[in-house]
Amino acid sequence: MNAPGPHPPVAGDDIVASLRGVTKTFGDAVALDDVSLDIHRSELVVLLGLSGSGKSTLLRCVNGLNPVTSGGIVVNGVRVDGASARQLRTLRRDVGFVFQHFNLVGRLSCLENVLVGGLGRLTIPRYGALTYPKAMRRQALDHLDRVGLADFAERRADTLSGGQQQRVAIARTLMQQPSIVLADEPVASLDPENAGIVMDLLFRVCIEEKLTVVCTLHQVDLALGWAHRLVGLRNGVKVMDRPAVGISRDEVMDIYQRVDPETSDASARSL
Ligand SMILES: Nc1ncnc2c1ncn2[C@@H]1O[C@H](COP(=O)(O)OP(=O)(O)OP(=O)(O)O)[C@@H](O)[C@H]1O
User: What NCBIfam families does its record include (predicted)?
Assistant: First the structure.
């Protein structure tokens, strides 16, 4: 596997997702606290922070899975908070989601799992790979080839290793033809070697396709190697938002310092 990419310049300056003063609470727990953030087209943003700092909640707010408590989110021109169910369905067709646990249908073949990514473009449901249009089957095979799994097309997904399953999930996301990809700790359940391979693959194809990516990650070195921008969360507060170029590992590790809950707000906001 090649070394991480050289931080290619961001292709566009236009903002495709914008969060303004977003707060999300679950009962008494404040998962996001007045977070504002702009994501630019083709930008690769990595969210870092301790477990429970609000990273997954932020991703889920962006595609409307978590309604915000206050504040506003606009994605591809659509106001997510307050969007109708129909608007959300349309939005989600354009926003791919890569999950930690892959979310494949284990009893289906790899090819059919990838084809599922294209369902949003069809008007009637399909059962079995052969019921999809031939052009889509060819496309799905191409995506499997791209992630190095063309030979596994007919294999049941649940017979693959975790790393292979995540590669199928990446092919499924490509099949969806999204403009934005949200990835929630996509390699958290993989061993370090496979984590590196899968992350390199995900970032590489997203950069090649000029996709906008927001990814939560605990692997700081991978984030430093690939991301255009690093955003740090601590106790739901945005404590860092910087281009990845020029930032040191120590500065990134600062995000992971535990803080006294009595003073966390003040110290976090002052960063
Ligand atoms: N559905 C929920 N109900 C209640 N509390 C929740 C819910 N989802 C998240 N939280 C709380 O919100 C806070 C942020 O959680 P979140 O999962 O966003 O953190 P995270 O940074 O993604 O953590 P991890 O790295 O472990 O995935 C935590 O205190 C969590 O317990």
Answer: ABC_phnC (TIGR02315)
Residue of the CA atom closest to atom 13 of ligand 1? 31
* Structural domains of the chain, with CATH: 12-92+220-271 (3.40.50.300)
pLDDT at 35: 98
Look at the block and give the residue holding tokens 């003063």.
21
In this prediction, what percent of the chain has a pLDDT beyond 70?
Answer: 90
Residue in 28, 35, 51, 187 to alter for ligand 1 test, most ligand atoms within 8 A of Cβ? 51
Mutate to test the pocket of ligand 1, among 46, 48, 56 (most ligand atoms within 8 A of CB): 56
73-82, 166-175, 249-258: lowest mean pLDDT where? 249-258
Please state the atom number of ligand 1 nearest to the C-alpha of residue 56.
Answer: 22
Q: Whose CA is nearest to atom 16 of ligand 1?
A: 54
DSSP state of 158: G
| Residues in Cβ contact with 189 at an 8 Å cutoff, skipping those fewer than 6 apart | 100, 101, 162
Shortest CA distance to 203 belongs to which of 233, 231, 183?
183
**Per-residue pLDDT at 263 exceeds 50:** no
pLDDT at 141 over 90: yes
Atom index in ligand 1 nearest the CA of residue 58 equals 18
State in Å: Cα 152 to ligand 1 middle. Answer: 35
Q: Who lines ligand 1 at CB under 6 A?
A: 26, 29, 31, 49, 51-57
Distance CA 63, CA 74 (A): 10
Collect all residues with Cβ–Cβ distance below 8 Å to 21 and sequence separation of at least 6: 34, 35, 36, 70, 71, 72
Task: Place 258 in a pLDDT band, splitting at 50, 70 and 90.
Answer: low
